[in-house]
Specification:
13 helices; electron transfer activity
């Protein structure tokens, strides 16, 4: 069968803007997008630039934007893409600088990985980590990394991240998932965990994730970075890190429901913004529109019937909560 492949091309030495080029190619049964690209380069256009290595979904080198979604070209079936989209359109990963054609500069990605210190913090007392034989202490059999250690650093999650699209300073799903792996590691010293979590409270950290779930959808190894970010947020709250607006939103929401049995939209902004007058003035127009629509209850209204049962649920949850 003969198909048309639409590929985004860009040569910084000759092109002002990226453009698309079509290539017609005879394909065989079971062929992947990467196999087709290699044939296009070998048989039709030797100038085409792409990155690949293992061809087995292990190295992550061939991550691309295929038919509107970030995928590994080596594991993307042409037949399935045709059945789903009726075409084959290939572009480089978004949110990363393009070097040439389908090759992107991964330097910003690796800078974010290095920024979270992706290794265990050296122990001041090595005997706590090493046994008499000098070997690294093994993790207990019951311990799990929630699959975050399966990350192959392909960059697909960063390319799909809506927060990273808006703010390039955002650490991104891969780096935060990597950080979660070390925060959860029982061999990491308690002080180092606290330091890691404190650093992640800053702007572009864990509270800037919008939970759009795109990183989970595109991850080829089911790492589920968004779930790792949620675990980091929970761990931060358990460690008493509640000064960030995102943390105050969670604690304020829970506090209101525990005391009133429902969300009180009139008090919620004060829970999140505190006494920051400038931020309060910023949300006043929204509050006024909500009030005109009847969406804002009285600030100190009555609690709902059955509030004692609600509070009992919170009390039971607190007793079962894991200790830091």
């Amino acid at each position: 069968m003969r198909l048309t492949f639409t590929i985004q091309r860009f040569n910084p030495e000759t092109d002002q803007q990226p453009h698309r080029e079509d290539y017609r190619l005879d394909i065989g049964r079971g062929m992947t997008v990467l196999e087709a690209l290699i044939r296009i380069k070998n048989e039709l256009d030797g100038r085409l630039a792409l990155r690949y290595s293992c061809r087995s979904a292990i190295c992550g080198s061939c991550a691309m934007h295929i038919n509107g979604t970030e995928k590994l070209a080596c594991r993307t079936s042409i037949r399935k893409e045709l059945e789903r989209h009726g075409r084959i359109s290939i572009e480089p990963l978004p949110n990363l600088p393009v070097i040439k054609d389908l090759v992107v500069d991964m330097s910003p990605f690796w800078e974010k990985i290095r920024a979270v210190t992706p290794w265990l913090t050296p122990e001041t007392h090595p005997t706590k980590r090493y046994g008499s034989s000098g070997q690294l202490r093994l993790l207990p059999e019951s311990y799990q990394f929630h699959n975050v250690d399966a990350c192959i650093m392909c960059g697909a999650c960063v390319a799909a991240c809506t927060s990273h699209e808006v703010s390039r300073g955002f650490l991104g799903p891969a780096a935060l998932a990597k950080s979660a792996r070390f925060v959860a590691d029982p061999r990491e010293p308690a002080g180092a965990k606290q330091a890691r979590l404190t650093a992640l409270q800053e702007a572009d950290g864990i509270w800037d994730c919008t939970r759009c779930n795109m990183c989970v959808q595109v991850c080829p190894k089911d790492v589920q970075p968004m779930e790792a970010i949620i675990r980091l947020r929970r761990s931060s709250l358990r460690h008493g890190l509640t000064s960030a607006e995102g943390a105050r939103h969670i604690t304020g929401f829970v506090d209101l429901v525990r005391h009133e049995g429902r969300l009180n939209e009139a008090l919620m902004p004060l829970k999140v913004l505190g006494f920051n007058l400038r931020r309060v003035l910023d949300v006043m127009p929204l509050g006024l529109r909500m009030w005109l629509k009847g969406k804002v209850p009285l600030p100190f209204g009555h609690t709902i019937p059955g509030i004692e049962q609600v509070r009992a649920i919170f009390a039971a949850a607190r007793r079962r909560a894991p200790r830091v």
